[in-house]
Amino acid sequence: MNLTTSIIGITAYLILAPVAGGLLAGIDRKISARMQGRFGPPILQPFYDFFKLLEKEPITVNKVQDFYVMCFLLFIIITGCFFFAGGDLLLVIFTLTLASVFLVVAAFSSNSPYAQVGAERELLQMMAYEPMALLTAVGFYLVNGSFNVADAVTSQVMAIQYLPGIFLGFVFILTIKLRKSPFDLSMSHHAHQELVKGLTTEFSGKTMAFIEIAHWYENIFLLGIVYMFIAYSAVWSPVIAVIVCFAIYFLEILIDNNYARMKWQIALNSSWVVALTFGFVNLLILYFIG
Amino acid sequence: MSYVTKSPWIIHYDGSSCNGCDIEVLACLTPIYDLERFGIINTGNPKHADIFLVTGSVNEQNVNVVKQIYEQMPEPKAVVAVGICAASGGIFKECYNVMGGIDTVIPVDVYVPGCAARPEAIIDGVVKGIGVLAEKRAAMDKKPAIMDKKPAATVQTEDNEEA
């Protein structure tokens, strides 16, 4: 991918990702409400929430936590920029980890017991999804001979044909990353009164709004990885890829509404087991056959 | 128009209510009433909340809790006293430990009468509370200095003074 398309990719991501992410969150809330037999909030509700949080009085326990949250947002955006510029998938995954670490440090810095439990849970979640995320990158390397996102989407072969196990494993950890039940242990969309909202306990007003928008940026970028599995050089493949992205997101909403929250041990064990069985076996087969 | 009217988040606290009003508050979140269609979320965190929904009266045990929750909420904020106990102490008014309605310790914006208050009345009260929020938001625009004068962590400052 040349410089022009990279710049177009980055610009489109910077401008469109929060809009698309917010809309997706709104549709998510509406569909969830309908699944629960409720009418649900307007589609634009996440944006109302976001702008409301911006105009609230700033309350902060210590100034440094705002700095860390800003770093979190910044590095999430940088992650997405690397990705949509067609950059190196390994770099993308490590930058994402760095961003998450900033969020954890922000929660730890407040010294609130709820925030600390939330931060610890977030660390456990990172431990849970990290192996599968790395295996995803390795899988794309084995298929395309390159870690570059640009090479994957212009490849001659459809990645999912060679990486069905990796795809399933990635969808599994997507539940953790999109903060959906059964693995929404540190920053759930629901259960606002419970410990699972712990990570955000000490964040309010603008800081909270930045976390929201970072979450939107992150979701779009994660769906971007799903897109990578389907899209290749064929003209029709991007259309199918976008449809698959929506289908996967709908599946996540369905899972979210159908499963009770599980303990962190199950989250950690199951995601490592999935990474080993689906991901690693897929890689082995690919290595010996391909 | 201010966005606070479109996404009022609630924190619900049970003072010394008999749980009658609390059940009705939770009933508002069920599919029949579905408060979320107004963008209302029942948060458990005063730092995220815009509307403070109190049921039951204030007593000697919970007076500090009520004050702290109120002080931890960022401006603009509104207080809705749900049920007759929260309004005046109700049937428990003469109890040895009861101090009275919520307005004996924090300023209350909306009173929702009833024993127990019906979900329709509670929703009505919250919607009135949204109106109060809009007024307070407008007042914040007029004198933005209020935000500098009143430090955010009011609770902490008081603790420091005591220490």
Tell me what the structure shows:
The complex is a heterodimer of chains A (290) and B (163). With 290 residues, chain A is mainly alpha-helical. In chain A, 74% of the residues lie in helices and 0% in strands. Chain A is globular, with a radius of gyration of 19 Å. The two termini of chain A are 25 Å apart. The mean pLDDT of chain A is 90. Chain B has 163 residues and is an alpha/beta fold. The A-B interface holds A 29, 33, 36-42, 45, 48-49, 51-52, 54-61, 192-194, 197, 200-205, 208 and B 2-4, 6-7, 31, 34, 36-39, 41-45, 47-48, 50, 72, 74-76, 137, 140, 147, 152-153.
- Strands of the widest sheet of chain B, in order across it, are 2-1-3-5-7
Summed over residues and divided by their number, the pLDDT of chain A gives a mean of 90
The helix fraction of chain B, in percent, is 25-40%
Q: N-to-C terminal Cα separation of chain A, in Å?
A: 25 Å
Question: Count of DSSP E strands of chain B?
Answer: 7
- Rounded mean pLDDT score of chain B: 83
Structural class of chain A: mainly alpha
Strand content of chain B: 15-25%
Point out poorly predicted stretches of chain A.
none
Order of helices and strands of chain B: EHEEEHEHEEHHH
Biggest pleated-sheet summary of chain A: none
Number of strands of chain A: 0
Radius of gyration of chain B: 16 Å
Biggest interface reads:
A-B, 33 and 28 residues
Oligomeric form:
heterodimer
Report the CATH topology name of chain B: Rossmann fold
Question: What count of domains describes the coordinates of chain A?
Answer: 1
Give the helix proportion of chain A (percent range).
Answer: over 70%
- Overall domain count of chain B: 1
